[in-house]
Amino acid sequence: MTTLADLAELVRAPAALSVPGDVVAGATAAGALSPRTPALAGASVLLYWAGMAANDWADRRLDAVERPERPIPSGRVAPAAAVGLAAGLTAAGVGLAAAVGGRRAAALAVPLAASIWGYDLLAKNTAAGPVVMAACRGLDVLLGASGGRLVRALPAAATIAAHTWTVTELSRREVSGADAALPRRTLAGTALVAASAAVAVPGTRAATRPADVTTTNGRGRSGQLAAALPAVLAGWYAARYGAAQAQVVRDPSAGRVRAAVGAGITGLPALQGALTARGGAGLLGLAVAAAAPLGRRLARKVSPT
User: Fold this and answer.
1) Residue 35: is its pLDDT beyond 90?
2) What is the pLDDT of residues 159-168, one digit of tens each?
3) N or C, fewer C-beta in 10 Å, the chain?
4) Which of 65, 57, 61, 78 lies closest to 11 in space, CA to CA?
5) How many Å is the Cα radius of gyration of the chain?
6) Percentage of the chain with pLDDT > 90?
7) Are the CB atoms for 262 and 167 separated by under 8 Å?
8) Which of 84, 70, 78, 268 has the alpha carbon at shortest distance from 175?
9) Residue 205 pLDDT grade (very low, low, confident, very high; cuts 50, 70, 90)
């Protein structure tokens, strides 16, 4: 009999903590933070879980050889149940996005859902796989920005997409292990991603806030701390994820690769927090980043990869 724990493992439930920050970062960049933002984040989580279930359904025969302990090959979840759950979560995610965000949100949720399924069914094992997965995350950021100026969210979407490319490239070697050249490339990409998140984008509140104004009540100092927050959070992201990739350079075994992929997934909220803070919402950025240590703890119980 299938249990909730089996379904949580199927959809890699803890990894969903890496998802709401996409929407929040996009909404902040676009000036679209509103009461509907949490609902859009919920829609994003539903679509993410749909992708995880569809991924395991598509890989069920390969997992029977390489990962027989997974829910479908182990017999704990029937293939029909997995694909049915994936379809239901997809419909729920798109429907929720359309209900709270109207046509503009639906216009992004539909291609996001199509990209998720396209990756799982067609692109995953091709050279286009990392690009399609990166596009999924970029569209997720833009979903959050759907109520504002989308163009202002493009830098954040590109940054999250670039991070996703590095994680996806590594994930393709979770079973076989990698050569040292792969983690060197992804590590270089991570450095660029962190640097881009730490730099204020022209036109945002973080970019226009005067950093050198000082007052007797300390508000100038507070402003300087707020201006530094994106760099601090981006550095935290780079240190955690970068250290895991450096381990793969030294030891490119499958276990080290899986650990790096896990670090990339659970460390993403720190990057999203940096982008949120860069958009001028420092406290919200800290709240988003707080999901990173929580995700690491939960990952010890349910693997995010």
Assistant:
1) yes
2) 999 999 999 9
3) N
4) 57
5) 19
6) 82
7) no
8) 70
9) low
Residue 83 dihedral angles phi and psi, to the nearest 5°: -70, -35
Average pLDDT over residues 49-57: 97
Asked if pLDDT for residue 219 goes beyond 70, the answer is no
Say if residue 278 is exposed, middle or buried (CB neighbours under 10 Å; 0-12, 13-18, 19+).
Answer: buried
HSE of 78, CA atoms in CB hemisphere, 13 A: 5
What mean pLDDT is predicted for residues 218-234?
Answer: 79
Q: Is the pLDDT of residue 221 over 50?
A: yes
